[in-house]
Structure formats: structure tokens, C-alpha cells
Amino acid sequence: MSVVDVSFEVRCEELPRDYGYALFRALADELDWLEDEATAGVHPLHGCTASGGALLLGPRARLLLRLAEERAGEALALAGRRLELGSGLQIGAGRVRELMPYATVYSHFVSTGAEDEAEFLGQAAAELREAGLPERMISGKAHAAGTPEGELRGYSLLLHGLTPTQSLAVQARGLGRGRKLGCGIFVPHKSVVAVGAAE
Description:
Elements: E1 3-11, H1 20-30, E2 41-42, E3 48-49, E4 55-56, E5 62-68, H2 72-75, E6 82-83, E7 89-98, E8 105-110, H3 117-130, E9 137-147, E10 150-159, H4 164-173, E11 187-188
Antiparallel strand pairs: 1-5, 1-7, 2-5, 3-4, 6-7, 8-10, 8-11, 9-10
């Protein structure tokens, strides 16, 4: 199954800092298949934090959904919708982007259910091993996100030394739990070039 990112322009003055669950629910209200789609993920939004804790989105901010390619056309119907989230999230034009095979990929927030970093790394390694992927990784900053079932905890995670096939596989499947809340979704690490680009 081919997996892609669907990218939308967005306009929003501010969002609550812990917006992940509310964003997923608002998107699921628009896309009735999103909640049950096992491979679907919602990338974290990027912005800057205001003094009061709100997230401020700049003009270059994008809403990104990672989806099975056959769902991309349905997702593009979000263009023009307004989500009742924060000050109101207006969704603009969308486009489909293929995943790129980078040797190093990064996830802002991976949650395996562990709170201790050593336990987290052990669980992440076991999941990678089970998927036939290398266990070369570096953990970073701790993160937390609220859900109705309780708080998700985890760490940022960088995976390196991937072949093109391994890179696309980990980007397509993700790692850990909370994929629809922005967790476990890997993107190319900005300091490296695409695998094979210099060959």
C-alpha cells in the first residue's frame, strides 16, 4: 500500500498549546473514515508559543495528513473548510506529496507507553526489530499530550542509517501510539540529503 502526505495551507491566529486531540476530533467530524483508518496520521502543527501558552501559526504553517494514497482525493475535500479550534482554523488549498527516502528521519513525539527514557528506547527498539527495521536511534526532548483516556508521554526520536526501502517503510507505518494526535510520524531530517541523491 502506498502512503502519501496531503498538505494544506492553513490560517489561524492561535491554537491551544495541547491541541492534538481537539484537532483530530475536528478532522474526524469532516472525514468520517479518519478515526477507523489504521494507517492515517495527523502531523504536528508548527508555530511559536506565545507568552500565555497558545500556539501561534505563521503564514508558512501547513496542516499535513499522512494517509493511504487512495484516501488522498477524499482528504483534499477539506479545502475551504473551517475547523472550530482555537480562534478558528481555516483550511486552504491542498496538494499531495510523495514520501521521500531519507537516510535519517525524525519524529517530534513518539509514545510507546513508557515514561522512563531507557524503557522507552527498549520498547521502540523492540517495535523496530519486529518490523524488520534497524534500531539505530537517538532520543531527545520529553513530551506529553492530553487525551480523554489520560496523558500520552514520550520523546522525540531520530532514526538514522536507513536504506531507501527502510526509510519509506518507517515513514509509512510510524512508531508507537497516538498517530492521529501527531505522535510517531517521521519526516526527513533537515540536515541530510535524500538517500541516493548524490549517487
